[in-house]
């Protein structure tokens, strides 16, 4: 006699292959989302914000230009969150830069921003200005 197998998510009877653990893709996704949301949920949420910030900065990056000066509005309109960045550093001139991975920005005296990009992960803190 065959053993009755039940879905690990909803408990319904499973039909099909003998090694099947879930009744359908929805239950499989719900099960794994529930398992993975625990303490890593906050980490995933922050990583999502950081990745979005990086995409926004990359999307504003002008082709063929060295640097970009702009105001905050284009970033805000795209959903940029200024409170989230991967790291900060200070240039030799004392300007504070905030980065989302390799793309970053600095706030200028007038309240405008200058966008910058790190080319490679150098051993020292050096910046390539782009606008």
Describe the model.
The structure is a single chain. This protein has 131 residues and is an alpha+beta fold. Strands 1, 2, 3, 4, 5 and 6 form a six-stranded antiparallel sheet that branches. It has a domain of 89 residues. It is rod-shaped and about 75 Å long. The protein is built from three helices and six strands; from the N terminus they run ααβαβββββ.
Q: What's the rounded overall pLDDT mean?
A: 86
Quaternary state of the chains: single chain
DSSP strand count:
6
The H-and-E topology, N to C, reads as HHEHEEEEE
Topology (SSEs and partners):
Layout: H1 25-37, H2 41-60, E1 68-70, H3 73-77, E2 87-90, E3 96-100, E4 103-107, E5 113-117, E6 128-129
Antiparallel strand pairs: 1-5, 2-3, 3-4, 4-5, 5-6
Explain briefly what this protein structure is.
The protein has 131 residues and is of the alpha+beta class. Helices cover 29% and strands 18% of the residues.
